[in-house]
Specification:
Elements (H helix, E strand, L loop, with lengths): L1 H6 L33 H14 L5 H12 L1 H13 L6 H6 L10 H14 L5 H8 L4 H12 L6 H5 L2 H9 L9
């Protein structure tokens, strides 16, 4: 639980920081009254107790359902993915602090989780380190990141697009962005 929370600082955002509720599906947002469960300090504590009490005693579907009622759908599914893939994931801090030596996932699911986590937590101060790490991932993961950045709905697009490391990376991989012949 602590590893997942540490790697997802957006869990603690206030709705006042998020204009569009789609930008952060984990938290309470008054513009999305359909969210009956969401992440709070209390719900994280409850979810931690649920995971400790039931891990290995109930199937994944039952555990996921219990977490959905506690944390909300998206948070529950992401937490369960993290629990299943935790041994294959590098920590967010290791990518920021030592991108040349941070663990590279061996499974496609863990690689996707690392890329999506980077997209959701991107900040100007660590784009360079992320680009160093991204070079170590396979071409498909690099394309996944590039397409995420190119998405018109990506809120942190300018942070990445204005970075010199990203610009050099795009120039050296123009084939990712060209039309099929």
């Amino acid at each position: 639980m602590l590893g997942w929370v540490r790697d997802n600082p957006q869990l603690f955002q206030s709705f006042e920081e998020v204009k569009d509720p789609e930008q952060n599906p984990y938290i309470f947002h008054p513009r999305d009254p359909s969210r009956k469960a969401f992440v709070t300090g209390r719900s994280l504590e409850k979810a931690s107790n649920i995971v400790k009490a039931t891990m290995g005693k109930v199937d994944d579907m039952t555990l996921t359902a219990a977490l959905m009622g506690t944390l909300g759908d998206r948070a529950a599914m992401d937490l369960m993915a993290f629990v299943r893939l935790a041994n294959d994931l590098p920590s967010h801090a290791s990518i920021k602090d030592d991108p040349a030596n941070a663990k590279v996932p061996t499974s496609a699911a863990a690689t996707c989780m690392v890329v999506y986590r980077a997209l959701s937590t991107m900040e100007a101060g660590w784009v360079d380190n992320w680009m160093t790490y991204l070079d170590r991932l396979d071409t498909e993961a690099q394309g996944l990141f590039a397409n995420g950045v190119r998405s018109p709905k990506y809120a942190k697009q300018s942070v990445v697009l204005l970075n010199k490391s990203f610009t050099r990376w795009v120039q050296s991989r123009a084939y990712l962005f060209g039309a099929d012949q």
